[in-house]
Amino acid sequence: VDSALLSLACYSGIGFALCKRLLQEDAGVQLCLACRNMQKATATKAMLLAAHPSAQVSLVHLDVSSLESILWAASEIQHRFQHLDYLFLNAGIMPNTHVNFKALISGLFSGEAVHMLSTAEGLLTQEDSVTSDGLQEVFETNLFGHFILIRQLEPLLCRLEKPSQLIWTSSSNARKSAFSLMDYQHSKGKESYSSSKYATDLASVALNKHFNKQGLYSSVVCPGLVMTNLTYGILPSFFWKLLMPVMWIIRFFTNTYTLTPYNGAEAQVWLVRQKPESLDALTKYHSCTSPLGGNYVESRKMDVDEEIAERFYQKLLELEKQVLARLTVPLSPK
Ligand SMILES: NC(=O)C1=CN([C@@H]2O[C@H](COP(=O)(O)OP(=O)(O)OC[C@H]3O[C@@H](n4cnc5c(N)ncnc54)[C@H](OP(=O)(O)O)[C@@H]3O)[C@@H](O)[C@H]2O)C=CC1
Ligand SMILES: CC(C)CCC[C@@H](C)[C@H]1CC[C@H]2C3=C(CC[C@]12C)[C@@]1(C)CCC(=O)C[C@@H]1CC3
């Protein structure tokens, strides 16, 4: 197969909505779903094929929090495809999240209420853990695993005559002050999610610097606040259902309450239609929804320093060298 579209984490949430929307736009695309739960992935493939019987959908097992799994998946993908047009880096976790309700209530009565409700600044903390690779789980899942995958798939992504696009799912919760170059895995703090999403923004900027001349382009999107398993891990789903009328009212003050996975995938779908050369490396593309439910994309400059992005990129390359040297086990599918 010459060209395909590889999407990470697709059987629920924004990833699944993205796959449905891509097939609605063009039923002829070759879709490869990279997921860690093959049972759920098989059911997802069946649902996609039921709606688009002539679509070409394949599956590959991938756990982005395991280097062994990433290397195996990358070699499998290289056997199947010669080129990837788009790689959607969408897998993400926000584990053991605690909401600071005191800050939420006082924030609602401050001048910063809209900013707080769209970025969650000051509202959330997480308890992170360490993976079997010895890395911080949120860092490895949300960023580093994807980074290693990209590096392994370089031969399928870097072709000057046929550009490829990396599309990362970042967040409005990405925050410079949560990230530190000295502790880029965020092993000491309690805002591992914010840190990992800021690290995503930095990595995308640096990848553009290093790979544009080889025909590889990277962009970050923000899907807004979307009701998915990720948000149901923050507050129970019945609570979110009760809050729905409040969130429709909040839509009059901020366009970031996209709420449905379909709306949240707007920026990813929009990016597929753009010429990658025309995109700005320092811009984040936000899915937005108006009070009446209309979807559109807004471009916003990221709070990213190119020199820090480059220093972080060098640290990622160093870490890559270390972890790959540690991996001595023979690779086999899980
Ligand atoms: N929902 C929101 O409001 C927002 C979400 N985002 C981002 O959007 C992306 C998609 O999340 P969303 O759709 O909301 O939530 P979901 O929980 O529905 O989707 C996350 C997906 O990531 C997969 N995943 C998690 N860990 C791994 C892993 N180790 N290897 C492979 N796949 C993995 C999950 O698979 P499994 O089911 O097996 O766990 C799941 O399919 C994430 O990057 C998230 O950070 C950004 C801004 C806002
Ligand atoms: C709707 C409100 C009256 C009550 C909800 C309060 C908070 C639980 C939410 C306010 C802003 C939200 C938010 C996220 C999670 C839930 C909130 C903190 C995210 C962090 C979810 C994942 C992201 O990537 C970005 C979101 C920003 C906004």
Automatic annotation (TrEMBL):
This enzyme's EC code(s): 1.1.1.210, 1.1.1.270, 1.1.1.62
Predominant subcellular localization, coarse grouping: endoplasmic reticulum
Subunit (UniProt): Binds to the short form of prolactin receptor.
Keywords (A to Z) from UniProt: Endoplasmic reticulum, Glycoprotein, Lipid biosynthesis, Lipid metabolism, Membrane, NAD, NADP, Oxidoreductase, Steroid biosynthesis, Transmembrane, Transmembrane helix
Biological process per Gene Ontology, one example term: estrogen biosynthetic process
Annotated localization: Endoplasmic reticulum membrane
GO molecular function: 3-beta-hydroxysteroid 3-dehydrogenase (NADP+) activity; 5-alpha-androstane-3-beta,17-beta-diol dehydrogenase (NADP+) activity; estradiol 17-beta-dehydrogenase [NAD(P)+] activity
Source organism of the structure: Pelodiscus sinensis (Chinese softshell turtle)
Family: Belongs to the short-chain dehydrogenases/reductases (SDR) family. ERG27 subfamily.
Transmembrane regions: none
Gene Ontology cellular component list: endoplasmic reticulum membrane
Name of this chain's protein: 3-keto-steroid reductase/17-beta-hydroxysteroid dehydrogenase 7
Pathway it works in: Steroid biosynthesis; zymosterol biosynthesis; zymosterol from lanosterol: step 5/6; Steroid biosynthesis; estrogen biosynthesis
Record gene name: HSD17B7
